[in-house]
UniProtKB/TrEMBL annotation:
Pfam families: SBP_bac_1 (PF01547). SUPFAM superfamilies: Periplasmic binding protein-like II. PANTHER family: ARABINOSE-BINDING PROTEIN-RELATED (PTHR43649), SN-GLYCEROL-3-PHOSPHATE-BINDING PERIPLASMIC PROTEIN UGPB (PTHR43649:SF31). This is Extracellular solute-binding protein. It comes from Candidatus Enterocloster faecavium. InterPro entries: Bact_solute-bd_prot1, SBP. Belongs to the bacterial solute-binding protein 1 family. Keywords: Signal, Transport. The lineage of its organism: Bacteria, Bacillati, Bacillota, Clostridia, Lachnospirales. It comes from the Bacteria.
């Protein structure tokens, strides 16, 4: 329902925008419109963290970016509306589109990006990127740049990002005499370690130490080269050996526990060896005093995801985007502001001070200054490796962003559970569920 409401707002916004523009053209043809010569550039931002972590620096990076921009553009003033929460942002932006007052530059949430790009609300940035000699695509992580593309066209720039990594309880592995896995570890390594650490440590007849929590078909598919949906979410494919291998892995992992399911409480107490986690969540939990409250009983760090036989040590990249309004009156200035937000190294370095994400610039993320900042916040030099982090960002896959994604994922979750529980062979179940999910996707598209 929430996704559908967002979609309805966006549709209404573009319908209203079309009427507004038609009226504006007629008014202009009558000679009754007068445009102010003052250049006031507007930008849309929300007040809280994209990563849903409380901090006291809501607008610090934005304000610093505006200061840098205005110093080099004294004839332009930048304004923004404060106090908009992330949960209200999509509706607010759609309302601005509807009234014809949308900002020149604005953040775009992942679940809204495809809709705005498809409906013509975002400026195509391709020509500006190609013609601007001061803009260097190679300075960005390629995966972060791809997050701003729709059907191969660049409609947005990445502002900050966070890859998913494998959180590892170093204490458990040390106690069991197991080395921390390297960057090239595999599913089989993962399975063997989980099998070894899963046990009844107090000999009371029940398991109390576990291998992993939160590892699902999503992580397995991603690390085995499987793209289950197309870009627009109109087609699904659960067939193929890559999917079959991933389902078999999930099945094997569940069998290790003998039917028992580890809980978040087990993880918090230090009784689980692995958990997939966004790096933004990792940073938030490592920061004092939350880490002391929640994870004070064990040492931990992060490593890449284990690779499947047909894949690599990769996972999804979550990226917050910055886009330009297709109807901006000041596209040149809007582009310059976007560059300050995304390509200025000093501004990007502030992400490690005032946010929980990762800079989209390789040189910033890999710098000694960044390592120092992260060490100061975590207090544990062994928990972080900038090379692992940087490689995880560069090699990550762009997450699905089509409308109705949560419902489509729920269908795949149901399919995986059903296939593992059915008497028929896995390939047969894959074919049956591919048809069912595609029928669901088609019906969903028809309704919209």
């Amino acid at each position: 329902m929430k996704t559908e409401r967002r979609r309805n707002w966006i549709l209404a916004a573009f319908s209203g925008l079309a009427l507004f523009l038609a009226g504006a053209v007629c008014w202009d043809m009558g000679g009754k419109i007068s445009l102010s010569r003052e250049k006031v550039l507007t930008i849309g931002f929300f007040s809280d963290s994209y990563w849903e972590v409380q901090n006291g620096y809501s607008y610090r990076i934005l304000d610093d970016a505006i200061r840098v921009f205005e110093e080099s553009h004294p004839d332009v003033k930048v304004r923004y509306t404060s106090g908009i929460l992330k949960e209200d942002y999509s509706q607010w932006l759609a309302g601005q589109m509807l009234s014809g007052t949308a900002p020149d530059v604005f953040l775009v949430l992942g679940e809204d990006f495809n809709d705005y790009a498809a409906m013509g609300g975002l400026k195509n940035l391709t020509s500006r990127i190609e013609e601007d000699e001061g803009f260097h695509e190679e300075e960005f992580y390629s995966s972060a740049l791809r997050a701003g593309q729709y059907h191969g066209v660049q409609y947005a720039l990445p502002y900050e990002c966070a890859p998913k990594l494998m959180f590892v309880n170093r204490t458990i592995l040390d106690q069991e005499g197991i080395e921390i896995p390297g960057q090239q570890w595999t599913w089989e390594d993962f399975y063997q370690i989980c099998s070894q650490v899963t046990k009844d440590t107090d000999q009371n007849g029940g398991l109390d130490q576990f291998g992993v929590i939160g590892y699902t078909w999503e992580e397995a598919f991603e690390s085995n080269g499987v793209s289950v949906f197309n870009e627009d979410g109109t087609q699904c494919s659960l067939t193929g050996t890559g999917v079959e291998a991933a389902i078999r892995l999930i099945e094997r992992m569940e069998q290790i526990n003998g039917g028992m399911i580890a809980s978040e409480r087990d993880f918090d107490l230090g009784n689980v060896a692995f958990q997939p986690m966004s790096f933004s969540e990792f940073r938030a939990y490592k920061s004092y005093p939350l880490s002391v409250k929640k994870y004070s009983g064990f040492e931990w760090g992060c490593i890449p995801m284990p690779a499947g036989p047909q894949g690599d040590n990769i996972s999804t990249l979550d990226t917050l985007l910055v886009a330009m309004n297709e109807r901006s009156r000041f596209p040149r200035e809007a582009w310059e502001l976007m560059k300050v937000l995304t390509a200025d190294q000093e501004i990007q370095s502030e992400i490690f001070d005032y946010s929980e994400g990762v800079s989209v610039l390789r040189t910033v993320t890999e710098s000694e200054e960044t390592l120092k900042r992260l060490m100061e916040s975590s207090g544990n030099p062994e928990s972080l490796n900038l090379r692992i982090l940087s490689d995880a960002v560069e090699n990550a896959v762009v997450g699905y962003r089509f409308r109705g994604l949560s419902e489509a994922k729920a269908q795949v979750s149901q399919a995986v559970d059903a296939i593992m529980g059915e008497d028929s062979t896995i390939p047969t179940g894959q074919i049956i569920w591919t048809r069912r999910i595609n029928r669901f996707l088609n019906e969903n598209q028809t309704e919209q």
